[in-house]
Hints:
- With 391 residues, the protein is of the alpha+beta class.
- The protein folds into 3 domains: 3-101, 2-Layer Sandwich (BirA Bifunctional Protein, domain 2), CATH 3.30.930; 112-217, no CATH class; 240-365, no CATH class.
- It has 15 helices and 6 strands.
- The protein has a 4-stranded antiparallel beta sheet with strand order 1-2-3-4. Strands 5-6 form a two-stranded parallel ribbon.
- Helix 8 (219-258) packs parallel to helix 10.
- The protein is globular, with a radius of gyration of 26 Å.
Amino acid sequence: MVTADNWWGPAGDEGPTGPCSELHYDGGSEKGCTSMMTPIELDLQLRSERDKGISPTITGCHPNCDCERFVELWNLVFMQFYQDADRNRTPLPAPSVDTGMGLERITAVLQGKNNVYETDLFSSIVDCVCDLSGIPYGKSEESDFAIRVVSEHARAASFLIGDGVVPANEGRGYVLRRVIRRAIRYGRRLGLEQPFLSKVAQSVLDKFGSVYKELSESSEFIIRVIGLEEDRFANTYEQGNAILQDMIAFRKALWDLCEGKITAQDIAATGADNRLVGDRFEEELTRFVNMLASNPDTGVTVDQANMLPGEWVFLLSDTYGFPSELTAEITREHGVSVDIDGFTVEMDAQRDRARAAQSFSGGMEMLTVYQELGADKTLFVGYDQCRVIHR
Length: 391
């Protein structure tokens, strides 16, 4: 294989790295995209194009093909070099072999399933989601995807909380919060309007609790945390998603305006129920009308019309608590992009304002006092206790 397909690492900007040998499972020709290349043919083609200094254009199905015929089960990395930030490699003083196998993938192979979600590792969790939603697995690719997201995210959230992670606005706590919120969002797509994630999490505990004591010992805590997080996010999601849908419809209307399908008066007549959002619509509509008037020949590009401004993404996040990553995911499904750079500028400005306010109020001095007392980091126990006696 060429280096890009046959080399691992480093994991970050620098670190151990080396060539690797991958073990694949062949799912059969019925899953392949074209006829299978023999190893000799593949090797000759790759070597020939490598020697010519051009990128390989493989003409047949092979282990690194994007189709679903081959599944990588195992990877052995021969750690031989250390690569620095400038991509310079030096031999390691003690080379080693780093190996890893996909337990869930080998389970799918041994059980003759197409993917891990159809194995007994997930079947009971998937069944729970299907029972709650009333939608059978296999009905459509769209519903299957949503069922898989809810099942996998419920499992991930349960294990994270069992390991001591709780929802927060930064670090690993924010990763957990994002996982839970994404599960809720896809639950809504399955018609699950009432709280449901705790029930799915219970199916996770029923499945794995006897094997992982962290789950069985913290079962009540896990269910309580997920339930609280779901309740808190429910109203935020409904309100934020409604506003986002208005924003998406407005951006699409702008493109129709650019193509001459509708007039500016048509867009202005629709408006927005939310005054804060409506003001931004009016400003953006005026800007686009002026752009069209000043550029009658070149007009406005689809990217300009179909991009949600960073300020709007920040408004959803800061005012309505609607996560930016959820905004990006939903808009992408509607063919609308997000101005991430603009959002980052707004976030940086917000942080600067927060730091200035904290400095003015003497917050840093107070924080220093707490740190000197050894109280810079505390364990939050409010999810399961109302009162704590501490010396």
